[in-house]
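Fill in residues.
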């Protein structure tokens, strides 16, 4: 291609000619295309000529192949909101949708305060009386009321006729024990005693003088014998024998004042005047006047008048013979006196 000349000033644009048929230009371009020469320096732009009148628009050529889509430019700032248009007409109401499932019932709310009572309405006319209901169960009988005041006594009636005299009863003396004795008693039929399980008691000067008690198995005879007894299986004969015994059991006292001071001791046997008179122990046996008179211990055996008379608190002692323990004490005392001289 030849070197281009410097462009001159652009002349006045002529009127656009008619658009020629397409195709010849393309052929010319193909013929005139030689080797591409070096691009010369670009000349200064000439002054723009007066625009010519627009020629007639040529026929639209076929669309070229779309170029590749360029990268999306940055989003421009939002434009100012335009004035809201007038509301359109309300559309027709759509059909109701299917009801949803019923939700779970919520917890009951707190009870509200009771409102003030409303004014009483006008009483309606009485209705017809209903049929009588069945009688209810009778209530409990109420307490008896206080007695009323006594009325005025009426006049005394006339005395009735005297009745006939009844038959004479049997002589009471026939079934009583006379102070001077009874005659005509029957052995095995008549007796002094009781017909129930109550003890038989004897008294002197209104004091206990004998008792037979089947419940306690007590047998006593003598003024104040076993006077305070509450124990079981005790036997006492003689004035004040077992006088102070209370809860002691299985004791036998025969002789005036025997076991006189025993209270709670058990299993004691005393035979003779004042035998075991002072004992408060248990399991003692004394036979003879004043035998073990002063003893208060237990497991004592004294046989003979005045044996172990002076023994007091000793236990597990046995003495057989008249005044045995007293004689031993005298012999010891004599020996001591001889030794001292």
């Amino acid at each position: 291609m030849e070197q281009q000349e410097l462009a001159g000033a652009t002349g006045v644009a002529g009127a656009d000619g008619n658009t020629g048929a397409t195709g010849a230009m393309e052929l010319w371009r193909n013929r005139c295309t030689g080797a591409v020469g070096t691009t010369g320096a670009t000349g200064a732009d000439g002054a723009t000529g007066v625009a010519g009148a627009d020629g007639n628009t040529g026929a639209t050529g076929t669309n070229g192949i779309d170029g590749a889509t360029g990268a999306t430019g940055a989003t421009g700032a939002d434009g100012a909101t335009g004035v809201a248009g007038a509301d359109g007409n309300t559309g027709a109401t759509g059909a109701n949708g299917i009801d949803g499932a019923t939700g779970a019932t919520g917890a009951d709310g707190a009870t509200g305060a009771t409102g003030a009572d409303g004014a009483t309405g006008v009483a309606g006319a009485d209705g017809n009386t209903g049929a009588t209901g069945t009688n209810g169960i009778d209530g409990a009988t109420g307490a008896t009321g206080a007695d009323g005041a006594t009325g005025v006594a009426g006049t005394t009636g006339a005395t009735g006729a005297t009745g006939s005299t009844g038959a004479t009863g049997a002589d009471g003396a026939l079934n009583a024990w006379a102070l001077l004795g009874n005659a005509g008693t029957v052995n095995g039929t008549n007796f002094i005693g009781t017909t129930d399980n109550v003890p038989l008691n004897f008294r002197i000067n209104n004091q206990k003088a004998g008792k037979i008690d089947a419940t306690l198995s007590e047998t006593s005879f003598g003024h104040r014998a076993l006077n305070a007894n509450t124990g079981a299986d005790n036997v006492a004969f003689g004035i004040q024998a077992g006088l102070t015994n209370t809860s002691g059991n299985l004791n036998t006292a025969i002789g005036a004042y025997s076991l006189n001071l025993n209270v709670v001791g058990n299993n004691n046997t005393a035979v003779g005047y004042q035998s075991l008179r002072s004992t408060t122990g248990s399991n003692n046996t004394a036979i003879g006047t004043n035998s073990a008179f002063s003893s208060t211990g237990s497991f004592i055996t004294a046989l003979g008048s005045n044996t172990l008379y002076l023994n007091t608190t000793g236990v597990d002692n046995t003495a057989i013979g008249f005044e045995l323990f007293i004689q031993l004490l005298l012999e010891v005392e004599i020996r001591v006196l001889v030794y001292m001289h």
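Residues 75 and 97 are 42 Å apart (CA to CA).
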